[in-house]
Amino acid sequence: MEPEPVRTSLDDQPDRPHPTDDPVRMTLDDGIATITLDSPANRNALSARLVARLRHHLAEAGADERVRAVVLTHTGPTFCSGMDLREAAAGGMAQGAEQLLALLRLVVEVPVPVVAHLRGNARAGGIGLVGAADLAIAPAQATFAFTEARLGLSPAVISLTTAPRMDPRSVSRYYLTGDVFDGAEAERIGLLTRAVDGPEGADEAVAALVASFRLCSRQGLVESKKLTIGALQAGFDRDGRALARRSAELFASADATEGMAAFREKRAPKWVSEGGTG
Fold first, then answer.
1. Which three-class secondary structure state does DSSP give residue 245?
2. Between β-strands 181-182 and 135-139, what pairing exists: parallel, antiparallel or unpaired?
3. Is the pTM higher than 0.85?
4. Dihedral of alpha carbons 156, 76, 144, 68, sign
5. CB 77 within 8 A of CB 121
6. Which residues, listed in sequence order, are joined to residue 142 by a DSSP beta bridge?
7. pLDDT, tens digit, 9 for 90 and up, residues 5-44
8. Contact between 125 and 144 (Cβ < 8 Å)
9. Which of 48, 172, 231, 276 is such that its CA lies 20 to 30 A from the CA of 158?
């Protein structure tokens, strides 16, 4: 595969079409691989194609001896809105849940540090990516929500990367309510490394981390990261497959079908489990 042109800025232009229509792009600049989610029309939702391309680039970056760190960023106002609900509504979520499980584990196990660089919001599965990254930077004004319970689902697979990062009371509060919280709260509860003032502040904070990584040897970074991910890996080993199966079962349920339809149609759901007709 031919290397792509080097980019000199982490700040992508959200409205500029990419000639290959690739939902994920990667560039390499002086030891830093920048992977950009570039599907702003659907808020960088985790479609099967986007997940496959993201996994490809993460594996490529991890295997490249020149790479000291990976920066995972995005175009458009949303980092990632979670699973692609149109694909989910069409069925086949058993495979989708397994793909999400594999993606999150890959982010955790890329041998070099992964930085989630948010310039905007994240929801549901997108927050799973934030939790999987070693470091996460976002504007204090960015918003987050575990929306699954409001769709008849649960944050099953993404609990593997978010629950270990967050304090237990906040896990209960935000998993169970689906309430929106901002970047400052995300830092307080442990989901973010830093919440900063605005997208430009996020750019500056990530640039500072990148400068630090460039002072380190790749070997030092690889060996140091191994010391930080053991608990996450143990969770995947212990619970990953069961949570992926449960996620697929929930997506196939009557309540989830109604919840996703209500979300698309912008109406209140009629929960089948409570006697609604759907």
1. helix
2. unpaired
3. yes
4. positive
5. yes
6. none
7. 333 222 333 333 343 589 999 999 999 999 999 999 999 9
8. no
9. 276
